C-alpha cells in the first residue's frame, strides 16, 4: 500500500488490490483512509457493479488462496457497513453481492459467507423521495416571515435542521450527475436543495431590505450574524450555521 500512496497516480486495479491488502485475515484494517476514500470516490472511475464484479472474479480465480478470499470478504463487509445506501438503492449491486454470498455458501465457505450481511441494511428509499406540497383545503392559516418571536439559537436550529434534512438526501451520484451535465437535469434531489438554499437567501435579503432605515437594517444583519455564531445543535453533530453566515454577508 505504501507504494500506491507514494505514486502520483494508480490504476483502478492497483487501488482495488491495495484495498484488499489493507485487511488482514481477521478483518483488521491497517489504514482506513485509502480504503474509505476509494470506496467513496470509485464511481468517478468505475461503476460500483463493475467493481463488485472484479472482487467476485478475483475470489473465484484458481490462484486465490483462502486467506485472500477472506480479505476480499472483509473488504465487501466494510463497503456495506460504510456505504449501506449504495447497496439499498442499487438493486443490481445488491443482487451481485447476494449471489456472491450464495456462491460462498454453496462452495463450503460458510465462515466467509457470514461476513457479508445485506439483511441488516436499512431502507434508504426516503433519500430519493421528493416531497410535494399538498394544498390545504382547510381554513387558511396566518403565515409570518418575521423572526421577532425567535431568539438566535431557536432560529439557528430551525435553519440548520432544514438544511441538514435536505443535505442528507444528496448522494454521490447526484454530485456526479451535476458535474457531468453541468446542471440539475434529472436531478430533483440536488435541485430541491439548491432551491432551499436560494429561498432562504432571498428570505434573509427580504428581512434586511424590509426595514426602512439603515440602523434597523444593521440590526437585522447583526441578528443573523449572531445566528451564524450559534453552536450547532447537539443532535446534529458536525453541522454549523456557516451557510447562514454566508447569506447574511
Automatic annotation (TrEMBL):
Gene Ontology molecular-function annotations: guanyl-nucleotide exchange factor activity
Domain annotation N-terminal Ras-GEF: ranges: 3-123
CC annotations in GO: cytosol; neuron projection; plasma membrane; synapse
Top-level taxon of the source organism: Eukaryota
UniProt keyword Magnesium present: no
Domain Ras-GEF: 151-249
GO BP, sorted A to Z: Ras protein signal transduction
Protein name: Uncharacterized protein
Organism expressing this protein natively: Xiphophorus couchianus (Monterrey platyfish)
Amino acid at each position: 500500500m505504501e507504494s500506491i500512496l507514494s505514486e502520483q497516480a494508480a490504476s483502478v486495479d492497483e487501488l482495488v488490490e491495495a484495498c484488499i491488502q489493507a485487511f488482514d485475515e481477521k478483518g483488521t484494517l491497517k489504514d482506513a483512509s485509502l480504503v474509505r476514500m476509494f470506496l467513496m470516490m470509485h464511481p468517478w472511475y468505475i461503476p460500483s457493479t463493475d467493481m463488485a464484479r472484479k472482487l467476485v472474479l478475483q475470489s473465484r480465480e484458481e490462484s486465490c488462496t483462502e486467506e485472500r478470499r477472506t480479505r476480499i470478504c472483509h473488504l465487501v463487509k466494510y463497503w456495506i457497513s460504510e456505504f449501506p445506501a449504495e447497496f439499498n438503492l442499487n438493486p443490481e449491486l445488491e443482487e451481485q453481492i447476494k449471489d456472491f454470498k450464495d456462491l460462498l455458501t454453496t462452495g463450503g465457505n460458510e465462515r466467509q459467507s457470514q461476513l457479508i450481511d445485506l439483511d441488516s441494511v436499512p431502507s434508504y428509499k426516503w433519500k430519493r423521495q421528493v416531497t410535494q406540497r399538498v394544498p390545504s383545503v382547510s381554513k387558511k392559516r396566518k403565515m409570518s416571515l418575521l423572526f421577532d418571536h425567535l431568539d438566535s439559537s431557536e432560529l439557528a436550529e430551525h435553519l440548520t435542521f432544514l438544511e441538514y434534512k435536505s443535505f442528507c438526501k444528496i448522494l454521490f451520484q447526484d454530485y456526479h450527475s451535476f458535474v457531468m451535465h453541468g446542471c440539475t437535469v434529472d436531478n430533483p434531489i440536488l435541485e430541491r436543495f439548491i432551491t432551499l438554499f436560494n429561498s432562504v437567501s432571498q428570505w434573509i435579503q427580504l428581512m434586511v431590505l424590509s426595514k426602512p432605515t439603515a440602523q434597523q437594517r444593521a440590526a437585522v444583519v447583526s441578528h443573523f450574524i449572531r445566528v451564524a455564531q450559534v453552536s450547532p445543535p447537539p443532535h446534529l453533530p458536525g453541522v454549523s450555521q456557516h451557510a447562514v453566515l454566508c447569506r447574511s454577508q
